[in-house]
Specification:
By secondary structure, this protein is an all-alpha fold. The chain has a domain at 43-69. Helix content is 71%, strand content 0%. The protein has helices at 17-53, 57-68. The N and C termini lie far apart (80 Å). Pfam families: DUF6533. InterPro entries: DUF6533. The chain crosses the membrane at residues 24-43. Residues 28-54 form the DUF6533 domain. Keywords: Membrane, Transmembrane, Transmembrane helix.
């Protein structure tokens, strides 16, 4: 009977530390930028709904005509 091991090996070799540190930095950086994007989206969602999704068509036509002339 053969068992497959799913144990993660951890290296204590000091030459691997810069690589491990960069991986941690990249992971934290990815999470931090995602949080900033979501925070910005939450803050501006009300304005987007008010200005884009709720505005009537006449307001849109006025903006389109003023941009053309």
């Amino acid at each position: 009977m053969t068992y497959v091991s799913n144990i993660t090996s951890v290296s204590n070799d000091p030459s691997d530390w810069p690589y491990i540190s960069s991986e941690f930095f990249f992971s934290y950086w990815t999470v931090a930028t995602g949080v900033v994007v979501i925070y910005d989206w939450v803050l501006t969602l009300g304005q987007e709904i008010e200005l884009i999704w709720v505005s009537d068509e006449s307001n849109i036509k006025k903006r389109d005509c003023s941009a053309i002339s």
